[in-house]
Each structure stands twice: as C-alpha cells, then as structure tokens.
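Run log, item B.
One chain of 133 residues. Sequence copied directly from the ordering sheet:
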Amino acid sequence: MKRAVIALVLTVLALAATTAFAQASVDLRADVPIGFSVNGQHYSAGSYELRTVSRGAIRLLNIKTGETGLLRLIIPDQAKLSPPVLRFAVNGKRAWLISFSDGQGTTWQFPVAARDLEASRSEPAKTVIVALK
C-alpha cells in the first residue's frame, strides 16, 4: 500500500512538471531585417523561428536556409506584459542579439561575444526591436 501511494505521488508530480514545462514552451516567428550574431555566431537576415528547448535554451531556425543555433539563455528578468520581441544592438555594420521577451512578462538575455562588447565601447550601439508573431 505504501509503495502504491509513493508511486501515485511521483506520477502526479511528474505529470505536473511536464504540464508546467509544456505551458512554458515558446514557438514564435520573426522577420529579422539585419544580419546579427549571438555569442560570436553569425546569422544572416531572414525569417526565423524560435522554439523552447529547455528552460535555459531556445532553438533559432532560419526558415529559408535551415541554419540553426541553440541559444543559451541568461537568468530571466521579470517585467510587465508586452508583445514578444527580439532586441538587437546595432553598431555600424555589426549587430548582435541581446534579449528575447516572450510576451508573458519574461525577458531573457543572451551572452555577448568579446568582439561585440569591444565594438560597443568604441561607438555607442543603438537598440533595434523586431516583433515576433
């Protein structure tokens, strides 16, 4: 009897965790008009799909070329509800992805490569926001 109760409790906990993770899943698209980089990896301008892989990572897929990347996310920053967006830093001809907001009040930041940080020190970078669908 005791084993049955423990098994039932573990099953309920596993189901609850699976349901919570499924609700946190993100599947969005963006038309990015500029080439950009994420943590030193370059991506060309185009239509992208973002899909949650785990709590700490998303998959970025160029719909036309099939180019993909697994992006590690930095600790989320809770904020007010707003439309889902990608934020890029643009400095001259260089652009890099700096954050992703899911529209549910959570914003994740991406690691920035040393060369992108150095570029932002020489000249202030502008922020470009791309809406997600």
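Observations after the first pass:
- The chain has one domain: 26-131.
- The chain is about 25% helix and 45% strand.
Flagged for discussion on Thursday.
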